Request: fold
Amino acid sequence: MNKKETSEIKKNFSDKSGFFIMEKVLTAFVDSEKNVRYQNISSCITMENDENDLYSNILKKVLNTNVGKNFIEYEFPNDAYDDGNSQNILYKLLQSELKDEESAENFVNHIANHITYTGQFAIITAYCNYTIKKKNKLDEYGEDADEVYRYILTAICPVEVSETGFVFDSFNNEITRKINTELLISKSPSDGFLYPVFSNRSCDVNHIMYYARKADKPNISIIENVLGCQFVMSADAEKSSFHNILKTVVGDELNYNLINTVNEKIKDFVEENKNETDTSTIDCNKIHSILEESGVSPERLQALDTVYESSCGNAPLTASNLIENKTVLTSSGITVNIKSSASDKIHTKVIDGRKYLLIDIEDPNIEINGLPVNLK
Reply:
C-alpha cells in the first residue's frame, strides 16, 4: 500500500463517507502474564454512537499515512497459510466476518501466545467493508460493477492504572484525594495491523500492513511471531545504514558542501517521484550516481558495492527516510541548527592553520538568547 491508497481507506473510515461500514468489533484484555482475561464481539449496528465513535477514533490511528515509517507493508512467507499459521488464522477471521467465536478465540490466543509486550494490553479488532467505486481512464467514477474491499483492522493498546489525584466532591463541596484502581485502555495504540492490504484499489490477501506508534521502536515480536513476516529495517535504521555507507566509502572526502549536496539530490529524487504509486527507493546504483555527481572520487566509489552489501544486503533504502530537513553542526560544547533554506550561508574554512565555521549574516538584526546584539 502506498500513501494514496492508505489515505483513501483512512478518509473513508467513517459512516459519513457513504461507502464504509464497520460491522462488528472484537475486544479482548490480556494481562501481564499473557492470560486472556476477557473477550467479546459486539455489533456496531446496535452500538451507541459515542461507543462506536470511540472505537473508530482508536482504530483510525492505525491507518497512518506515514507509509514506510510508521505504517509498513509486509509479505507473508509461503508457509504462512498452513493450518495454524498467521495468514491462515487472519484469513479465517476475515472470512468469518467476526461471527465465529472459535476463529476469534484462535486469533486472540495467537496474539497472546506469541507477542512480547511489557505489561497488560487490550486488543481491538473491527471487521469492515468499503465499497470501491471503479474509475475510468479519465479518473472519473464509471458504470462498472463496484468491488467490496473487506478487511480487519486491529489496534493493540496499552492498559495502565489511572493516576491517583484530587477530585472535587460536588455532593460534600470539598476537594478530596481519590485513589484510582481502574485499568485505563489507552486511546493511542502502540501497534496495529490491517489485513488484507488495499493495493491497486483491490484487496491483496498475501500482504499485511503493520503500524507502530514509534517508528524507531517497532515491536519485532508482532511482525515476526504474531504476523509471521520477516522484519525490515526501521526508518532510523535505514538512515543509520546510509550514514555508515557515507562514512566508510567517502571517508576524508566528507565535508559540509558534499553532505548538503547529497541531501539535496535525494530531496530532488523524492520530489520527482512523489506522484508515483510505489514508495521511492534508492539502491546501490542510485547511491553511486548521486555520490559521483556530488564529486566523490572514483577511487572512493570502488568500495561502494561491498560496503552497501554489508550494510543493507540487496534491499533498497526508502529515499524519504534518508532526507535531513535541517543541518546540525556539532563540536565540543557547540551545537548549531541550520534550516535547509539557509544551508548555503554556512562555510567551513582553515585560516592560519585553525578550523573555522563561518556564517554569512545578511539580516542586520541578530538576537542571542532573545536579546538584540550589535556586531561591530
Q: What stands out?
A: The chain has a mean pLDDT of 89. The first strand starts at residue 20 and ends at 30.
